[in-house]
Design goal:
This protein has helices at 2-20, 35-49, 72-92, 108-111, 117-136, 157-165, 173-185, and strands at 54-57, 100-104, 141-145. The protein is mostly helical. The protein has a three-stranded parallel sheet with strand order 1-2-3, covered by helices on one side. Helix 3 (72-92) runs parallel beside helix 5 (117-136). The longest helix has 21 residues, at 72-92. The radius of gyration is 17 Å and the shape is globular. 20% of the residues are buried. The model has no long low-confidence stretch (mean pLDDT 90).
């Protein structure tokens, strides 16, 4: 219950900050792997603001375990949240005039990470799908960001200690937000 209350506060704080900065935002809950739920949310957004013009796909979950301990359900949850979620988004926006697709992949896609075979694989598939989408949609800037771990989100305190013990710096929220804005402002088609 506490997590739910804190998450609700964070969402309200973010929406208020966007409004104070002169922006408009809506918050919707949908399982990105569920096409019906996703399409319902996107239809509502289209009704309010018109066609979808950009995608930022940052969905992800972790189920870190050695391969021998990983269940099919663990793999499915991690892989399908990233890959199935992106596929559902691309299908749901096929008729929208997308000018930008930005995917949060991970450096784990290239270097791997202990206990994250599914996460690494899913992120590398995102990289390949980004290349495919850039070829399919030449008018659209497509980026797949292969960044390291952030100080928030999926990085639990235990994972943070693991990264710190291995000398892996974490991206702080302010720097990460600035880097993200820079990426979106850069309309070049180089993968980062």
């Amino acid at each position: 219950q506490v997590k739910g209350i804190l998450a609700g506060r964070e969402i309200r704080h973010t929406l208020d900050a966007i409004a104070k900065a002169g922006g408009e935002a809506q918050y919707h809950v949908a399982d990105i792997r569920d096409a019906k739920s996703l399409n319902g949310v996107l239809d509502g957004i289209r009704d309010t603001w018109g066609p979808i013009k950009g995608i930022v796909h940052g969905a992800g979950v972790l189920a870190d375990k050695f391969i021998k301990d990983k269940t099919d359900a663990d793999f499915e949850k991690v892989y399908m949240t990233k890959v199935g979620g992106l596929q559902a988004l691309l299908e749901a926006t096929e008729q929208d005039p997308l000018s930008m697709i930005c995917l949060f992949s991970s450096v784990a896609a290239r270097g791997g990470n202990t206990g994250q075979c599914d996460y690494a694989m899913a992120n590398e598939v995102l990289n390949k799908l980004a290349a495919r989408e850039q070829a399919r949609r030449p008018q659209c800037v497509v980026k797949s960001l292969n960044w390291g771990p952030w100080e928030a989100g999926m990085v639990t305190p235990a994972l943070k200690r693991y990264f710190e013990s291995h000398g892996v710096p974490l991206i702080d929220l302010d720097s990460g937000a600035d880097m993200f804005v820079d990426e979106l402002a850069d309309r070049s088609r180089e993968r980062t």
